[in-house]
Amino acid sequence: MVRPGHRRVSEPNENADRARQDLDSAEKNGEWLTLRDAAAKLGVSHHQVHKLIKAGILNSEQIMPDAPHQIRAADLASEQVIAALKQKGRPCRVDSERQTSMFPGT
């Protein structure tokens, strides 16, 4: 029973607790990295790492939607990731020979 003027305390969210525990254990063993840790190892911003994930170039796992990304440390050395980061300014876009230039002759 909740007394007048007092808020009801919600039950703990089991999924959120499990996600926190999994993330804590992942950070401890070094096999898995957070998005920011992966960015620091690659020498890029966390925004660029997120773009690599969205483009399917870098694999990540999430315990549940909106949970922090967990990135396997070994995946940072993949050929796809290295090639994408070598492309200046647009690491997630692949230049296609079939793509027509908007400004021919430049």
Structural features, described:
The chain is mainly α and 106 residues long. It has a domain at 23-86: Orthogonal Bundle (Multidrug-efflux Transporter Regulator, Chain: A, Domain 2). Helices cover 39% and strands 4% of the residues. It has helices at 14-29, 35-42, 46-54, 79-86; strands at residues 32-33, 71-72. The chain has a two-stranded antiparallel sheet with strand order 1-2. The radius of gyration is 20 Å and the shape is elongated. The protein starts with 13 loop residues before the first helix and ends in a 20-residue tail after the last helix.
Would you summarize the structure shown here?
The chain has a domain at 23-86: Multidrug-efflux Transporter Regulator, Chain: A, Domain 2 (Orthogonal Bundle). 39% of the residues lie in helices and 4% in strands. It has helices spanning 14-29, 35-42, 46-54, 79-86; strands spanning 32-33, 71-72.
